[in-house]
Amino acid sequence: MRRALLLALSLLAVPAVQAAELHPFQASYTADWKQLPMSGSAERSLVKNDNGTWTLNFKASMMIASLSESSTFAFKNDSLIPQSYRFERGGLGKAKNINLDFDWTTNMVTGTYNKDPVKVTLLSGMLDKSTYQLALQRDVVAGKKSMSYQVVDEDGVDTYDFRVIGPEVVETKAGKVDAIKVERVRDPTLDQNQNKRITEMWFAKSWDGLLVKLRQVEKDGKEYNIMLQDGTVDGKAVKGS
Hints:
Layout lengths: L24 E9 L5 E10 L5 E9 L2 E12 L2 E12 L5 E8 L4 E6 L2 E6 L4 E2 L3 H11 L4 E8 L2 E17 L2 E11 L12 E7 L6 E7 L5 E11 L2 E2 L4
Keywords: Signal
Protein name: DUF3108 domain-containing protein
Pfam families: DUF3108
């Protein structure tokens, strides 16, 4: 349903190019599954916790399905440092649950994937499946044209590659937003069905690169879209032209 909708670095990683501060945000989206005669809603938010860490949340729901994803991370020396990752999907299709904890002292990720134990060795620059989206958002704002992230994906590590397509104006309920379109680059050595998958994202040129639109097409042709409805960044309402 959502495989891509967010390069955080470890304490030993090379800091990212940008030196922008993190700002809390909240955004609401309309969610549309093309093969189903109904729509839903989605929410994405970034909040700073009392202990100085940050939590990135994503939730999507419709009548027969729901999805929630949450990542807590530290932000130090311009680096995103994952601490924990939670994912839960229910309703439509097969249920899925992921619980991961990142221990940068022992350099291990431990947890469960659908009740099966997970143990992954942490290497410099690794992210979880939520914080990479925030890293991508920041890298696009910083002007990068191609990005690559090492992501702890369920019970292993995958490389997520992206490239900037160019500027586009996206019409949203918050107005017309000047955005930058980005697509995920699939590994050409994968089988043909895997390469049929499409992930496209549009990030606002302003508003800290807030996600404006997401389009995901799975290998079986099922398509999922979210579109910005309204939001705030650092307490200021997002407004297009």
